[in-house]
Amino acid sequence: MKHASLRIAGFLIFLVFCIPPPLFSQENTASPEPEFPSVLELSLTEAIHLALRQNRTIESAYLSRILERFRLGQDMTQFSPNLDISPQASTRTTGTATNYASDGPDTMRSRTDSAGLSLVSTVSQKIPTGGEIIFAWENGFESRYNKTDGSSGETQSGLSQWSVGFRQPLLKDGGLDHNTAPLRRAAMQEENNIRSLRDTLISTISGVIQDYRTLLSLYQDMEVQEDALSKAREQLEVTRTMIETGRRAPNEILQSEANLARQELAFEEAKAQMDDAHLALLQRLEISGDTTLVPTEKIIYKSIEPVFEDLMALALERDNSYLSALTSLEMAKMGLSDAENQRLWNLDLEGGYKDGWNHRKNDPSYRQEDWWLGLSLKIPLPLYGDQKYNREMPLLSARINLRKANMQLLTARESLENNVRNAVRQVASSLRRVELASKTRQFSEENFLVSELQFKLGRISNADFIREQDKLRDDRLAEIRAIMTYQNSLTRLDALLATTLDTWNIAFVTERTDLEAEYLGNKTWMLHR
To answer: Among 248, 305, 448, 454, which one is least packed by beta carbons within 10 Å?
Structure first.
């Protein structure tokens, strides 16, 4: 069926390249839908770019990336200086009453009013060996007013001092490898997150491709069914004419009418399937249902014969499941190392220096210097009870997790190898079916031309000619479906190898700066770059 369509030549180009990406709003999280013409002709490339521009699943993935990169920025500051400033102000009134049993007054009352201000600034710096250096600067002032029965007095004191101290674990919690492990974990997790985002894009693109091809295939099916319906009507008229001239038996009109009814039914069924596919693509592209999409792609194919060994090597470099299993194995090794480290004795080297002035009203001020250096040793000896179990559990769990990670890696590799091998087999098999379906369709067209001539000459029966019509229709449909099956097998192979973005020349962007600016404003520096 030839659908009337409106070709909007520059519309998609303007939409894809000129309109800025939609942003979320805190007041209204739903982006306004762009307006589309009632009939929109769409190539496969345009459909892919349209999905990338306004797909909610993709936008949600990029929103998750903001949190992931924020956490990564936090993890990567492990060895950055930490500044803590703590101002404090206080005021307090205290009253006491003392009762005497004999001698002196029965009761003595006193009251103390105190007020103080202090400011403590601390800078701490962790170092990759597990040690920590702390610098502190403290300034304080306190005023105290005492009033006792018959007397009163006021005292004021101030403190200004600075100190620097350090602590270096020598056994437990010490060592470069142990203390830099969290950074390596964060980096590996970031790689997993980036691959997950890539796979989200690939999944979305693959879904658009398959839905588009389904609609395209059903559009072609409609044309084949319409052509078959036209041939059935023509055959009915020819049969009617031949009956009137006495060249056919009157009962043969029933066969032609039944054939026409079957073709009309097949046409309506194809139309219903096309409507379902059209709605599925609209939903995939997140376009309102009042837009009619007309696929403009040509049903053609190019012979590709993939080599298993080459594709397997590529899959090992890019497959997220396998690489995640490999990452889990490395994390399990680090977990075992951490568990072994936590079983060591606590032996710490500690030292520091403090210098400060104490200022007192009515009393002499003085300066005080302190320094210290020493070793601290703590030996855990849990022999029974919960402490014994708590000491043994982390090491046992780490060993089991390492064994499981090794098995999961082997399983992931075997599964990947089977999937690649099966995908290569499907591509080769579907290509062979395309070639056979193409030959079969060519023979059917030649046979139909001969049968049509013989039917008009009265040399074959009405039923035989109807069978040739049905065979030609079925062989045309079989060729279309074989080509689509072959193309979809290549798309699945692309997704398996994580090469979809490369195939369609789509640049992979790991973050959306517009969303980051919206949710973080001028704090985007807190994200890891």
So the answer is: 305
Return the residue matching tokens 């796979």: 199
Closest CA to 332 of 408, 391, 411, 410: 408
Question: What single-letter amino acid sits at 290?
Answer: D
Kindly report, residue by residue over 12-35, the tens digit of the pLDDT: 333 333 333 333 333 334 444 556
Q: What is the rounded radius of gyration, in angstroms, for the C-alpha atoms of the chain? A: 41
State the greatest distance between any 2 C-alpha atoms of the chain, in Å, as a whole number.
152
- Distance, CA of 159 to CA of 220 (rounded, Å): 89
The CA–CA distances, whole Å, from 389 to 48, 286, 343, 384, 392 equal 56, 55, 12, 8, 5
Closest CA to 333 of 410, 398, 411: 398
Query: Comparing C-alpha atoms, which of 345, 348, 408, 343 is closest to residue 372?
Result: 348
Distance set, CA 452 to CA 180, 225, 251, 477, 519 (Å): 81, 18, 20, 20, 70
pTM for the full model? Answer: 0.81
pLDDT the model gives residue 54: 82
Is there a contact between 485 and 299 (Cβ–Cβ < 8 Å)?
Answer: no
Name the token pair of 215: 């609609």
pLDDT tens per residue, range 173-229: 999 999 999 999 999 999 999 999 999 999 999 999 999 999 999 998 988 888 888
CA dist 168 and 342 (Å) reads 15
For residue 282, the one-letter residue type is: L
